[in-house]
Amino acid sequence: MKQIEFELNKEFRDRFQEALNARDNEFIRTSLEEVNPADITALLYEFNGEESKYVLDLLPVDVRAKIINDLDTETRKSFLTHYTAGEITEVVNHLDSDDAADILNELPIKTSEEIIASLDADLKSQVIDLLRYDENVAGGLMAKELIKARAHWNVVQCVEEIRKQAENVTKFYTVYVVDDFDRFLGKVSLQKLILTDPRTIVKDLLDEDIVSVETYMEDREVVEIMSKYDLESVPVVNVQGQLVGRITIDDVVDVITEQAEEDRQLMSGITEDVEEDDSVWRNTRARLPWLLIGILGGLISARFMGFFEKELVQVTAIAFFVPLIQATGGNVGIQTSSLIVQSLMKPGFVDDGLWKRLLKVFSVALLNGLFLGLIVFGVNWLVFGSNSLNLVVSLALFFVVVFASFVGTITPIILNRFGINPALASGPFITTTNDLLGLGVYFLTIHLLL
Q: CA dist 139 to 100, 117, 226, Å?
């Protein structure tokens, strides 16, 4: 069935609401008949749970399952409260094992157990196995559906088995090969199977140079491996080396999205996973810790400036340049740390040419500091005329840029070494640190040269 392009606009939404109110089933079915399930998902966010359920009940169960699976976690948990255990079972039976396990994990234990008891036999066994794993490890990401062959089969046997197994696998990119004890041996491409003599033994076609992941491996490591080797899927093995599942690229998309969101929130100084429509208290709680740290940094800065009260009294123009010094130090630190955080996402960054990278950062800092110092010196000379403070401010700015670059480089590396998310270094942490560093360098330069 060809799916049409769909545009959600106010006119269609209002017309659809009218159809819902009037229970115009024919219009609802017709208007959604050739629409991609992802677009229907977006439409249903416009309506409440009861209205959305009414719409979904008019659609084929496979489309219904796809739409429910596409809902974000919080919306789905709320939405499924309108369904009975039997209705959820019908939906879950049309999902892959990993998606089914994810949904069951979100439900109350009583409801989840009722649904598991009623699942199709094969899916039931797969889901029970998946529920043993935490959701943030490879075992929790993998799907049990895959195509596998025995090493001693010939090509004819292998192709016949592929036809049988493919009924339960929506997408497959390769055939995994195991021994009689299900120990993973390697893979065989579909192209080889098609082009090879039918009497050839699968073991003779085996590609043993293949990456696999263990069930206990963290999801971040799985993402790194799939990204590094540009994999569309990766086999999953247990501690005995037995093939137990596979992870496809669509399984890790949510992990990548969650990681990016977590890093973005840390860089913004938000300590919890929150959305704009979460409660006032939850949003306040997520923002407050780093705001308090920022206030603490400001109070320390004010106290620090008190140590140089004599210099401030003697040359009041010193205070004019405090915002410039702090803002520049903060910006340089965030720029540098953001680049380092991106690089740390690449395996081997710290071990592969670390000193070379640090030297490059230092060289960039020297050039930036030189250019900014000269610009500030020139502007001050035009505005205030020639005086010793111009030189002091320019020198201080130069050193602030160099030191801020160093702090922005070394902080995420240290955090990463201690297993702390380095994105933490790209937000208020660096800003507050470099505010204090900038003031220290600025007043120390003034104290020594004026």
A: 14, 22, 15
Own/partner long-range contacts of 352-356 (Cβ < 8 Å, ≥24 apart): 354/413
d(CA 22, CA 34): 22
In this structure, are residues 273 and 279 in contact, taking their beta carbons and an 8 Å threshold?
A: no
Q: Which residue has the higher pLDDT, 399 or 169?
A: 399
Q: Mind listing the pLDDT tens digit for each residue in 86-141?
A: 999 999 999 999 999 999 999 999 999 999 999 999 899 999 999 999 988 999 99
* CATH number for the domain formed by residue range(s) 10-136: 1.25.60.10
* Cα–Cα distance, 54 to 63 (Å, whole number): 14
* Pairing state between β 175-178 and 148-150: parallel
Q: How far is CA 206 from CA 182, 229, 238, 301, in A?
A: 15, 19, 21, 66
**CA gap 342, 422 in Å, rounded:** 9
Q: Which amino acid makes up residue 405?
A: S
Q: Would you say domain 148-254 falls under CATH 3.30.950.10?
A: no
Determine what percent of the chain is predicted with pLDDT higher than 90: 34
Q: How far apart are CA 394 and CA 392, in angstroms?
A: 5
Domain ranges of the chain: 10-136, 148-254, 280-449
Residue 223: both structure tokens together: 């993402």
Can you give the pLDDT at residue 365?
Answer: 86
For the residues 45-68, what does the mean pLDDT come to? Answer: 91
Handedness of CA 328, 334, 337, 339 (dihedral sign): negative
Task: State in Å, rounded, how far the first CA of the chain is from the last one.
Answer: 80
What average pLDDT does the segment 346-353 reach?
A: 56
> Cβ distance 389 to 317 under 8 Å?
yes
Band of residue 22 on the pLDDT scale cut at 50, 70, 90 = very high
Work out the percent of the chain whose per-residue pLDDT is above 70. Answer: 80
Neighbours of 4 (CB within 10 A): 10
Q: Contact 95/60 with Cβ under 8 angstroms?
A: no
Q: Which CATH superfamily is domain 280-449 in?
A: SLC41 divalent cation transporters, integral membrane domain (1.10.357.20)
Distance of CA 274 to CAs 71, 280, 281, 428, Å? 17, 11, 11, 18
Q: Which residue has the higher pLDDT, 445 or 31?
A: 31
Retrieve residue 60's tokens.
Answer: 């084929």
**What is the reported pTM?**
0.65
